[in-house]
Write a structure and sequence with these properties.
Helix content: under 10%
Number of helices: 3
Structural class: mainly beta
Order of helices and strands: HEEHEEEEEEEEEEEEHEEEEEEE
Strand content: 35-45%
Number of strands: 21
Largest sheet: 6 strands, antiparallel
Shape: globular
Mean pLDDT: 79
């Protein structure tokens, strides 16, 4: 199991005709351990080589989240990994290989809704690779990145820019995404990574923002808005809830308690496209969406 020390750097993608990459929120599962359309270390190496399961108690979006834990089987510290598509171990070249899913776009950024809990300073990771066929039909790397998912006691919605990492001007034809429960050298036993959504988008397009994350029936108005107050279109009393506004580059620009009339005051210096989150008194996500704020 010594190859785990270089696991991420040795994972490669191969074009595979399949469905477009959706916004995976891990509601559907093929078995007790495996998310639909994803593969795990348990698939490849058998039980005990990484714990991946469905989490239904600590969730922010929908009814389930992806749960990965860094275990210590047989005295070794092995982080868990789950990859979109099919993952297998190639014994000839001694590395894990992940076959990607069909994907034909060049997103500017990727958004991840996650929580990572680890005792010391450690970090989880999300790896993204996109491929395109060259003139001879062989896979050529268009994008290959690894982003850290930093520890924290609460859920985070984090944006990572992809546009500056493209290695080629070609249009991708396949992509894979891998989540790793403990990607740094610390590899802390018991580190837990929960992922409740992953979204590709182009922040420059407001229509794409709405398609990316505006789900569910709870809405705010007016939208587009300007300085003043936003109100939630619901008969439920939201006193005790809090409102968070997140810019397209992942910064939290506003956090405010909901007023008794289900409204929240906007800051005067906010303009542009934003995501909003509604957090319950129990620190659960009660709603989310997108909003345009005009000068």
């Amino acid at each position: 199991i010594a190859f785990f020390s270089a696991l991420f750097m040795s994972v490669s993608a191969v074009c595979q005709v399949n469905q477009e990459v959706p916004n995976h929120e891990f509601e559907g599962w093929n078995s007790n351990t495996d998310p639909k359309d994803w593969s795990t270390l348990e698939d490849v190496l058998g039980p005990g080589n990484g714990i991946v399961k469905q989490e239904t108690n600590d969730v922010q979006n929908g009814s389930a989240a992806l749960y990965l834990e860094t275990p210590t089987p047989s005295g070794y510290v092995n982080y868990s990994i789950v990859s979109l598509g099919n993952m297998f171990y190639n014994s000839t070249i001694h590395k894990l290989v992940s076959t990607g899913t069909s994907y034909h776009s060049r997103p500017d950024s990727v958004w991840v809704l996650y929580k990572y809990v680890t005792p010391p300073a450690d970090s989880a990771g999300v790896a993204i690779s996109m491929q395109a066929a060259d003139a001879n039909g062989n896979p050529e790397t268009v994008l290959n990145v690894l982003f850290p998912l930093l520890p924290g006691s609460s859920w985070q919605l984090k944006a990572y820019k992809l546009s500056s990492h493209y290695k080629s001007a070609k249009q991708p034809d396949s992509a894979y995404v891998s989540f790793i429960s403990s990607a740094s050298k610390a590899r802390t036993p018991g580190s837990m990574l929960l992922v409740d959504g992953i979204y590709f988008n182009n922040p420059s397009l407001s229509t794409n923002l709405k398609e990316t994350i505006n789900k569910g029936g709870l809405k705010v108005y007016p939208n587009p808005a300007s300085e003043g107050y936003l109100r939630f279109d619901t008969h439920e009393r939201l006193s005790g809830y809090r409102f968070e506004l997140i810019s397209v580059d992942g910064r939290k620009v506003l956090e405010s308690a909901i007023r008794q009339d289900n409204s929240v005051e906007l800051s005067r210096n906010l303009t542009g496209n934003f995501f909003w989150l509604l957090i319950s008194p129990e620190d659960k996500m009660a709603g989310k969406g997108s909003i345009i704020i005009n000068p």
